[in-house]
Amino acid sequence: MKYPEEIIQRVRDAADIVALVGDYVPLKKAGSSYKGLCPFHSEKTPSFVVSPSRNSFHCFGCGKGGNAITFLMEMEKIPFPEALQLLAEKTGIPLPKPQETERDLEAERERDRMFALQEFAGKFFYDQLTTPGGRKAVEYLKARKITGETAKKFQIGYAPDTWDALKKAALKAKFDEKELLKGGLLVQNDEKGRNYDKFRDRVIFPVRNNFGKIIAFGGRALGEGPGPKYLNSPETPLFKKGECLYLLDQARDAIRREGHVLVVEGYFDAVTLHQNDIQHVVATLGTALTKEHARQLKRYTQEVVLLYDADQAGQDAAVRGFEPLLSEALRVRVLTLPDAKDPDEYLMKHSREELIFLLKGAPEFFRWRAAGLREKAKGRPVEELIRSVQSLASFLLRVPDEASVQAACAAIEGELGLDNFDMRAIVNAERKSGSRVGPAERQAPVSKVAPLLPGREVEGEFLALLVADRAEYVKWAVQSVSPDLFIEEDLKVLFSNLIQGSMDAATARMAPALEPFFMQIEAQPDKFQPKKTLITQLYATLEMRHRKRQMILVKEELGAAEKAGEISKAAELAGRFVELKNQYHEMNHLKSEPHE
User: Fold this and answer.
1) Mean pLDDT of residues grouped by 10 in the chain (596 residues)?
2) Rounded-to-integer distance, Cα 460 and Cα 497, Å
3) Cα atoms found within 13 Å of the Cα of residue 520, Cβ hemisphere only
4) What are the residue ranges of helices labelled H in 417-453?
5) pLDDT at 205
6) Residue 587: its pLDDT value, please?
7) Are 349 and 355 in contact (CB under 8 A)?
8) Which of 447, 413, 411, 409 is nearest to 431 (CA)?
9) Is 396 exposed, middle or buried (0-12, 13-18, 19+ CB in 10 A)?
10) Please, are residues 467 and 505 in contact by the beta-carbon 8 Å criterion?
């Protein structure tokens, strides 16, 4: 699927990239740019920069960068055409019919059919609530205090207690069994040679993607049959359970507004909280939290409150869920509800205000965990409690900064209240044992996109400053600076084109290779002033680096000549090496300083 380049450019140019990125990442003004924590990797210090003048973004930590379209592709995990269409809708630019190959058309038709099938099934299930067979589902929802308005808002429905009600309706609507199987709505029975409805006699919850399109279903059993109480759609081309969070499409704005997200386990928990006007809530579809869940949540907030079931299984799930959240450097608090097994039951007994009061006081993870271990060890030897708490050291060693480690240790010690108990000593001992890598020893993740190495940074900043603004020092560079000073091939070619006159400064300013450097200059304008002084310093660094490289090369040749017994050549190279060494150490001033 292809769109004309001029249309793509028009959509890119019309997009307000600061507003777009700001919907996902809290941004602060920094010079003429904006900065925030990168949504693509874990970091404590903002290195993610958005430039309105260049209509682009770049992370100086992981190296990811691009424009409004590529940002949407990364954040929403969608292909280019879908990102372009979404951005075109936001900017109000109508898209022409794309130039498509037959393969593109077939893939698009298949994807559209799958979405259409899920929408059809969602409407079918919802409509069953008004049928005689759906009365027991309506009564069940009433017993769970779910109003008709809420059922309509979330399109909660009912799967009839028959083998093929949905199948018959879908076939009548011109869908085929192959599509129903691929969409996870039918189950294949090879022994009997027939396919039957996956969801039967269940209250149905449609699961939507971030754009509000139905991609799967969850069903709660009404009868006491042999099947599981809760059943989800299998994974399909539209649905990956470990990547999907129930009601995230409806909760995003509230999460940003509240500054944190509540994560619950079940459909009813999420729906009941939303019904009580607590809207910054998502559910994990009955699965453990994954790293992909954590990455998605990080797009909207830096803090997660786990509101899981009060039983042991729920508490264990909270402990397991902490690790993927920690890997994304998210702050985690946990609330165990008193007098109720889950949020749904709590709100049947208590008011919304009482729950909000408890949520505000939810302890951070390590304090909560220490309290739970203390309660569990009641009546047992103190040594057993200490052994249990020591297991938290492995978690603490994955906390990304030492200040947070110290605060967590203090919280654990305060919660336990044991004499002579030093959690910090336990953490330090485990760190020294080498069983875990501590915060101070942890290496930064290697980026798929090469980060700015020191050499590249010097070359890039020199070139960017050279062509910035009036480009007043380009004439000097033509006369005084050699392309041999550059190691990075793309920057060397760029500089060569500039001094040879085949590229002007205005064109060079738009070169993709220089974009990260211009964004850095925009984000930290004070750091790059005065301009002439900086260009002088960078030029001196390039010259000295060049001399040092020459010295290394000559020394290597000298060693090879001595090894081969080439005495005259070795003597010549030794003299050249001494000459270069003297030039390097005597280089107190440049042969030429920048001038207009």
Assistant:
1) 79 88 86 86 84 85 87 86 88 77 78 95 97 95 96 97 95 95 92 88 95 94 83 93 93 90 95 97 90 87 92 91 89 93 93 95 92 80 77 78 82 79 79 52 34 64 80 79 85 85 78 79 72 81 81 84 83 82 65 57
2) 15
3) 20
4) 423-433
5) 98
6) 62
7) no
8) 409
9) buried
10) yes
- Residue written as tokens 């050499």? 455
Residue of 228, 256, 258, 232 whose CA lies nearest to 245: 232
Strand order in the sheet with 230-232: 157-159, 202-208, 214-221, 230-232
Instruction: Supply the pLDDT for residue 444.
Output: 36
Determine contact, residues 114/237, Cβ cutoff 8 Å.
yes
Alpha-carbon gap, residue 22 to 24, rounded angstroms: 5
Dig out the tokens for 421 from the structure: 């108990």
User: If you compute the radius of gyration of the chain from its CA atoms, what whole number of angstroms results?
Assistant: 31
DSSP notation for 302-345:
SEEEE---SSHHHHHHHHHHHHHHHHTT-EEEE-PPTT-SSHHH
Helix 454-467, helix 531-564: angle, nearest 10: 140
End-to-end CA distance of the chain: 50
CA 271/CA 510 separation, integer angstroms? 49
The strand pairing partners of 263, in sequence order, are 282, 306
Establish whether the linkage from the previous residue to 39 is cis, with ω within 30° of 0: no
CB 322 within 8 A of CB 395: yes
- Please spell the DSSP secondary structure of 534-569, one letter per residue: HHHHHHHHHHHHHHHHHHHHHHHHHHHHHHHT-HHH
The encoded tokens of residue 69 equal 């379209």
Q: Considering only CA atoms, which of 591, 306, 350 is closest in space to residue 476?
A: 591
| 479 and 595 Cβ atoms separated by less than 8 Å | no
Cα distance between residue 282 and residue 265, in whole Å: 8
For residue 592, what pLDDT is reported? 55
Residue 386 burial class via C-beta count within 10 angstroms: exposed 0-12, middle 13-18, buried 19 and up: middle
Helix axes 454-467, 489-500, angle to 10 degrees: 20
Report the amino acid identity of residue 240: K
Q: Strands 33-36, 157-159: parallel, antiparallel or unpaired by DSSP?
A: unpaired
- Dmax over CA atoms of the chain, in Å, equals 105
204 forms beta bridges with 157, 219
Secondary structure string (H, E, C) spanning 337-398? CCCCCCHHHHHHHCCHHHHHHHHHCCCEHHHHHHHHHHHHCCCCCHHHHHHHHHCHHHHHCC
Beta strand ranges found along 14-165 (DSSP E): 28-30, 33-36, 48-51, 56-59, 65-66, 157-159
For residue 450, what pLDDT is reported? 33
Distances (CA, A) of 70 to 83, 86, 445: 8, 12, 22
- CA geometry: angle at 298 spanning 292 and 299, to 5°? 100
Given the DSSP bridges, would you call strands 65-66 and 157-159 parallel, antiparallel or unpaired?
unpaired
Contact between 329 and 54 under an 8 Å Cβ cutoff? The reply is: no
